[in-house]
C-alpha cells in the first residue's frame, strides 16, 4: 500500500466553532415553521474537532448538522459566532485553505454527465499533490461501474465516488455528510475501514449521522445535536458511562402467561425515578437502577409464579443517552 503524506498532528484544533447561529427564511416545505418565520437551523452551537480523530455530529433529521458543516466549510455565512478551520475563517477562505479540505456532500454534488474515472482524473489534476487515486479506486470498487455515467449510478456507487473525489487532494480535514447513506453492508465496511485509515494518518474527520451505530463504531468524539445546539459531547464511553444519576438499562421479556397473571407494578414507588418503556412483552427500565428496584422486579416475578423469558442488565447506548436528553427517539 502506498505511503500517503501524514501530517504531524498539530496541537490546535483543526476546526473550532463557537456559539454558531444560522437562520434561514422559512421557505423549505416541512421545516415546521409558519410562513414568514425564520428557521433557526443552528442556535449557538459550539464544538471542536482535532487531527487524528473522528468527530461525529449525531442528531435527528433537521437538527442542524448539515448547516453546521456547511458553515464550517465556508458554504454558508454564519449569522453569528466564530468558525475557524485550520486557523482561518472558512467564509473568507483562500484557495490554499480549500485545497487542504475534502468535502463529501449529502447529495454527492457530482457532475452528472461524466464517467467516474474521468471525473476522478480531473479532480486529481486540480491538486498539487493528489492522493494515490489507483489505490482509492481499487479499494472503493469504483472500476466496477466506470462505464456508467454519474447520473445512472446507484446511490451507494455515487456515495463511494463522492468519497474518492473528496479525498483526491489528500486533505488534512475531511467532512463527510452521512457517509454510510445508501451503502450495502460490504461497502459500508470498506468505507469505515478507509475512515479508520484516514484517522490513523492524523487527519481530522468530521461526519454527520443520524445512525447511532455509525457514531458508536467510528467516532472518537460524539456531539449529540438537537434543535441546532450540542446537547451532549464526549467519547462514546463517556457518554454512555453510568454516572451516579444515570446507570444502565434493565430489560425484562415477559412470558405470555405473566401478562395475564398480574399487571406489572408501574405505579410502585420503586419505579418513580426510572423511565419504564413497554413494547409488547418487553419491559425496559432505564435511569438510576438500584438494588431495591431490582428486588421489586424479582418480587413481582415471584408473585406471577412464572419465569420471564429474559432478564438482563445492559449498558446504556447512545440511543438511551439521546432519549434521556431530548425525551424522544433519534428517528
Ligand atoms: N437552505 C435552507 N433554507 C431554508 N431552511 C433550511 C435550509 N437549510 C436547512 N434548513 C432548515 O434548517 C433546519 C436544519 O437543517 P439541516 O439540514 O442542517 O439539518 P440536519 O441535522 O442536517 O438534518 P438531516 O439529518 O435531515 O440532514 C431544518 O429545519 C431545515 O429545514
UniProtKB/TrEMBL annotation:
Domain annotation ABC transporter: ranges: 15-252
A Pfam family this chain is assigned to: ABC_tran
InterPro entries: AAA+_ATPase, ABC_transporter-like_ATP-bd, ABC_transporter-like_CS, ABC_transporter_ATP-binding, P-loop_NTPase
Domain of life, source organism: Bacteria
GO biological process: response to antibiotic
Keywords: Antibiotic resistance, ATP-binding, Nucleotide-binding, Transport
Alphabetized GO MF terms: ATP binding; ATP hydrolysis activity
Topology within the bilayer: Peripheral membrane protein
Gene Ontology CC entries for this record: plasma membrane
Gene3D superfamilies (UniProt xref): P-loop containing nucleotide triphosphate hydrolases (3.40.50.300)
Record's subcellular location: Cell membrane
Name of the protein this chain belongs to: ABC transporter
Classification lineage: Bacteria, Bacillati, Actinomycetota, Actinomycetes, Micrococcales
Amino acid at each position: 500500500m502506498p505511503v500517503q503524506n501524514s501530517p504531524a498532528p498539530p496541537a490546535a484544533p483543526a476546526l473550532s466553532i463557537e456559539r454558531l447561529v444560522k437562520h434561514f427564511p422559512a421557505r423549505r416545505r416541512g421545516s415546521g415553521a409558519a410562513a414568514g418565520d425564520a428557521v433557526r437551523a443552528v442556535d449557538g452551537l459550539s464544538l471542536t474537532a482535532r487531527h487524528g480523530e473522528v468527530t461525529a455530529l449525531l442528531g435527528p433529521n433537521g437538527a442542524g448538522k448539515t448547516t453546521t458543516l456547511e458553515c464550517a466549510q465556508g458554504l454558508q455565512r454564519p449569522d453569528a459566532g466564530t468558525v475557524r478551520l485550520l486557523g482561518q475563517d472558512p467564509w473568507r477562505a483562500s484557495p490554499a485553505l480549500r485545497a487542504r479540505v475534502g468535502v463529501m456532500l449529502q447529495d454527492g454534488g457530482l457532475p452528472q454527465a461524466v464517467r467516474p474515472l474521468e471525473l476522478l482524473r480531473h479532480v486529481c489534476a486540480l491538486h498539487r499533490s493528489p492522493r494515490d487515486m489507483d489505490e482509492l479506486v481499487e479499494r472503493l470498487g469504483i472500476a466496477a461501474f466506470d462505464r456508467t455515467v454519474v447520473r445512472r449510478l446507484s446511490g451507494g456507487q455515487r456515495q463511494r465516488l463522492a468519497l474518492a473525489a473528496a479525498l483526491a487532494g489528500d486533505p488534512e480535514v475531511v467532512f463527510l455528510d452521512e457517509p454510510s447513506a445508501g451503502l450495502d453492508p460490504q461497502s459500508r465496511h470498506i468505507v469505515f475501514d478507509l475512515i479508520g485509515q484516514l484517522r490513523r494518518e492524523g487527519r481530522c474527520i468530521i461526519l454527520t449521522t443520524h445512525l447511532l451505530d455509525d457514531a458508536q463504531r467510528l467516532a472518537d468524539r460524539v456531539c449529540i445535536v438537537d434543535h441546532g445546539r450540542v446537547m451532549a459531547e464526549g467519547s462514546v464511553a463517556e457518554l454512555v458511562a453510568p454516572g451516579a444519576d444515570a446507570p444502565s438499562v434493565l430489560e425484562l421479556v415477559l412470558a405470555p402467561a405473566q401478562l395475564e397473571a398480574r399487571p406489572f407494578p408501574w405505579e410502585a414507588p420503586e419505579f418513580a425515578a426510572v423511565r419504564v418503556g413497554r413494547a409488547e412483552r418487553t419491559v425496559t427500565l432505564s435511569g438510576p437502577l438500584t438494588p431495591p428496584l431490582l428486588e421489586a422486579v424479582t418480587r413481582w416475578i415471584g408473585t406471577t409464579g412464572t419465569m420471564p423469558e429474559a432478564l438482563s442488565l445492559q449498558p446504556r447506548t447512545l440511543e438511551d443517552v439521546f432519549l434521556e436528553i431530548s425525551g424522544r427517539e433519534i428517528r
